[in-house]
Inverse folding.
């Protein structure tokens, strides 16, 4: 789809630069950004156009690029039939700007507007998405990338952003399918294939019987809203290239870069200390996570970036690095080849770290994550409870907090996302992390795994801590991080239809 010819009402004019490539998307810069939530149609795969919900008439929505230290205003206009919000995933915004309906704001009603304003202090790769009825609205396409360019960022010649997602070719669960009144928390997941691993796809969000809610219905995997189209990433020999990978879907993807050595220079936007050179490894990227790769374009030709997940739909999740003047590609997919995943536990160099396993913490919490039958329905629990009955993590400003995340589910991954804060990973399955400090806001905990993470309570507010497989969140796997020395002046409107998950 050529977005340059669309009517982009209410948007900024795109600013083209030599080193930033908006692949099939618009780039918005400056200190005032306008986003309009609206219905549209988009060709997701060749010959397959689906109804979508969008920001500024495309999926993904525009990439927003701002400078570190800028105070920015984002004006949201809602032209949809349902209320929406915007959550700034990974960005440590003030609590009032977090975009959580019923917690930090009322959902923005159809025909109304809302302004988000905050200072972009921390550079990195982030994204934005609706957090109103998010299991459905994110599924329809309400998301985009958000990049804070750092004052001390290493210069690159090319800078690409690739957003990963999954869709249903049937169009079920998309706009016009009467999803809006659905209460996922009451849904019976027992008949569903809810695995978050390689061999599954997101469940349908229709109002049919539970057995129809099968993750394998998601049969189109996309990069930047396109499946199988081999979007081209143009490079010149000798270029230093940065690729920002963002998983906006509900499944993990195993991303492989052909023909080049690379480094992982950032996790969830936060830098890795002296990253080592990698080759023939996949980056396993779970829902909500971001990884920044960097490589030198030193192997002329045309080379795939592709998903090695064990799912036939993965063949659609491809892009092509194309050197200037390169002949037509002879590079073939090797997606069936089993490659090892990058192990962050020993990656990079152990520089200065904010936290250690053995230090004394103000508070320690354990979160046991599980999949259980409750009242005849499948529920996703934290310490045997479902939201809103889960026990909040309570802190006060300045506390140091250690959290133990334990996945007791038999088959379900749980990518846990903490709003408003970054945490450092201390250990996995009792083994300390020995390389660079790995700083994240979203961490995938696979069945049987246990992680210890630590953070400082440095951003007062009432914050969500939830699974970013939003089917799990909507079925209970949500808790809150609450500051006892913070009092919000927000008042929820009972008529706003607030649906925080």
């Amino acid at each position: 789809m050529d977005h340059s010819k669309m009517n982009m009402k209410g948007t900024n004019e795109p600013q083209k630069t030599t080193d930033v490539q908006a692949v099939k998307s618009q780039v918005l810069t400056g200190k005032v950004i306008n986003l309009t939530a609206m219905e549209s149609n988009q060709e997701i795969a060749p010959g397959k156009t689906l109804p979508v919900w969008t920001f500024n008439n495309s999926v993904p929505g525009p990439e927003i690029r701002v400078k570190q230290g800028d105070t920015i205003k984002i004006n949201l206009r809602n032209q949809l039939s349902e209320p929406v919000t915007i959550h700034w995933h990974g960005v440590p915004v003030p609590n009032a700007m977090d975009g959580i309906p019923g917690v930090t704001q009322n959902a923005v009603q159809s025909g109304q507007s809302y302004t988000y304003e905050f200072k972009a202090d921390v550079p990195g790769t982030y994204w934005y998405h609706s957090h109103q009825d998010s299991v459905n609205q994110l599924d329809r396409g309400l998301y985009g990338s958000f990049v804070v360019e750092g004052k001390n960022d290493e210069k690159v010649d090319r800078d690409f952003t690739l957003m990963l997602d999954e869709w249903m070719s049937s169009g079920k669960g998309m706009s016009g399918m009467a999803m809006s009144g659905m209460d996922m928390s009451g849904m019976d997941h027992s008949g569903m294939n809810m695995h978050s691993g390689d061999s599954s796809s997101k469940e349908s969000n229709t109002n049919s019987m539970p057995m129809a809610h099968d993750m394998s219905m998601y049969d189109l995997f996309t990069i930047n809203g396109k499946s199988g189209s081999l979007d081209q990433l143009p490079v010149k020999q000798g270029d230093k290239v940065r690729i920002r990978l963002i998983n906006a879907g509900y499944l993990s993807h195993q991303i492989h870069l052909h023909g080049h050595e690379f480094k992982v220079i950032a996790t969830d936007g936060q830098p890795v200390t002296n990253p080592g050179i990698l080759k023939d490894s996949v980056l396993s990227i779970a829902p909500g996570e971001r990884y920044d790769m960097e490589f030198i374009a030193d192997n002329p030709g045309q080379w795939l970036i592709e998903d090695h997940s064990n799912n036939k739909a993965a063949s659609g999740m491809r892009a092509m690095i194309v050197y200037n003047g390169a002949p037509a590609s002879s590079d073939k997919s090797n997606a069936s080849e089993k490659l090892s995943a990058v192990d962050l536990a020993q990656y990079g160099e152990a520089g200065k770290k904010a936290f250690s396993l053995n230090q004394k913490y103000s508070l320690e919490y354990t979160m046991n994550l599980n999949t259980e039958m409750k009242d005849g329905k499948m529920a996703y629990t934290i310490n045997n409870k479902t939201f809103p009955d889960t026990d909040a993590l309570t802190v006060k400003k300045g506390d140091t907090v250690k959290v133990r995340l334990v996945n007791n589910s038999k088959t379900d991954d749980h990518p846990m996302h903490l709003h408003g804060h970054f945490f450092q990973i201390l250990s996995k399955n009792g083994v300390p992390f020995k390389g660079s400090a790995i700083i994240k806001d979203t961490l995938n905990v696979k069945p049987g795994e246990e992680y210890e993470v630590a953070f400082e309570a440095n951003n007062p507010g009432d914050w969500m801590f939830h699974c970013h497989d939003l089917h799990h969140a909507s079925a209970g796997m949500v808790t809150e991080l609450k500051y006892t020395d913070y009092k919000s002046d927000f008042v929820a409107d009972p008529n706003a239809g607030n649906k925080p998950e």
Summary: Residues 1-24, 174-213 have pLDDT under 50 and may be disordered. Residues 134-140 form the longest helix (7 residues).
